[in-house]
Amino acid sequence: MALAPLFVLLLATVAMAAPAPQSSPSSDASQQGKCVHGSPTKTENYDIMYQQVKPPSSDGNNNFIVDPAWLKRHSTVGSSIQMSMGNPFISYGEFKCQYSCGGIPGCVSYAGYQSGIPYHFHMAHRISADPGIGTVVGSHKKFECYFFDSLIESKNLVPAPDAENNVMTHAYNKLCDDK
């Protein structure tokens, strides 16, 4: 019987010496608002390893932007990269922006923007003096990604005041590493 109190004392010592259970890094990160639990976004050609943020219901308006006040408060250093491309390449731009966000310290979300910029391209022509020859007039798209240090919520997406210029394509939040 003298062994029973000794055994209880030994078990208590082992229990106190064992490390406290640690929460996983992904749950710590999500509790701090640095990632979301969800699924990657699949586009027609690319998998984006961030979860897409859906705009609030729009009453027919499909053109949104990130709320300018929120954008100003949460933009990260190196907050924009620009690419020139046409409409079919939006998913490629958004796909590439996930890698930029991953490389910017503190970046946990990003939004893609597209704007149409009219352009004139003049080609030199050796024979004709007519300046109109070789002029290409058209529409060129500018694509930008803006990076943020806070997760984007649907309420942070507001109707665009100018649907023709600088409209958000999609917004994305970083996924937690649930491994």
From TrEMBL:
<feature type="compositionally biased region" description="Low complexity">
    <location>
        <begin position="21"/>
        <end position="32"/>
    </location>
</feature>
<protein>
    <submittedName>
        <fullName>Uncharacterized protein</fullName>
    </submittedName>
</protein>
<feature type="signal peptide">
    <location>
        <begin position="1"/>
        <end position="17"/>
    </location>
</feature>
<keyword id="KW-0732">Signal</keyword>
<feature type="region of interest" description="Disordered">
    <location>
        <begin position="21"/>
        <end position="42"/>
    </location>
</feature>
